[in-house]
């Protein structure tokens, strides 16, 4: 149970042995006062925002629970200006009422998905924290709230212990929620279900990357949940999965605190993730392992101050040991070329310059576009300081087969990496006599790009072929990308997408929608003192980026947001694109 002395704000030392499941003794260490002040002030900033919109009927139950968590953190924390502030009780009461009112009879919530155990588990984790914090605080004014919260947990947990999931990370979210429920209201059904999920094994590759390859889910779900289970169920072995994942994250970090997501199999493969989500994970593993690199990242998050850092106050009130003074800082890696075979990616960093090379799409094994698959056509990224090239993509005009997506990645030298793809498109010949039908009603089968009642598998074929090889070579002041095409003659376009905020020069404007072309010579993109030069241009013909029939049939688009510069050419042949910083 929580320590009342901490909740009143009188803490000066903490025992960090609680971070080590099964630890023989607890080490007493000083509190990181700057960290506590940061979280306290961040939470005090959140509370007025909650008070201004806590009646928002459009909020999901997960949002309702998180708003309540923010209010409770300030209410119970002795150093907060909102400590035992009675003006929080009415809004908090309304939020708690919503948590109870929206619960189905089976104990589950609708959160996009109907009667969803995993989505309910996200909310129930917060509900358990609400109850635990208020119970440790022990104020008579919150007795009714605590009773309602307890009923919500006790109604939901049996459903979590019998229900199913959709994705790999859901298993750990449900298990963490059950671990919290069992800690408050012990029940063998809860621990049995946790053991069932854990017995499936943790979905992490030897290089520390989870199967979904998503920094979003590593930061928000898998790592926090494994840490919770390790703490509440005495499972010290789970800590090593988190440690290895955070070690990978060190190499995915950009200098401005973003985390590279190119290789993800989830929705963040086309977005940006910020490292602030990882704050308490890096703190906990720094304390657990003594790794000063983790200290450096945690402190950089605190110094940057971005994100919803106030959300972490509840975790620290629940586990005071997270506020301990961290081990001495050690430099985080900033000069490397790190290869991750499990996702066919390479991360290169030379101080303020970083690059990503990616060839790990799932498209060659599972040729469909679907959630849960890596289909990102970006194969190269580059940044130097504030000048950011968010993507390089290639699209040949080849039977609407879409973007170049490499079938793997090979490291061919210390700073040289090879990507390749071979596309074959058939023309279909008459069916052999034994497969012909007098009624002409043949099976509806896939051709590769589309379906038709043509019995495609039994037809002889004539193929048109295009092979593309891309070599990415690091040079002293940037990178050279060499494109080599073999096969049929056709046109292609290379798309460079720069992040908005800078100035392009040396390029021709194609339209008013952020599209430009480098016809000849060298172009540049500049943000302040930071600059990326690129070129040479290779011709004036305009060639559209073709996302492929899988997208165009339903009006889909793969056009990235930003300032897009196009270079064009024709196959077969060779083109070298140079980037200099």
TrEMBL record:
UniProt superkingdom: Bacteria
InterPro entries: Chondroitin_lyas
Gene3D superfamilies found in the cross-reference section: Chondroitin AC/alginate lyase (1.50.10.100)
Protein name (database record): Heparinase II/III-like protein
The species this protein was found in: Kribbella karoonensis
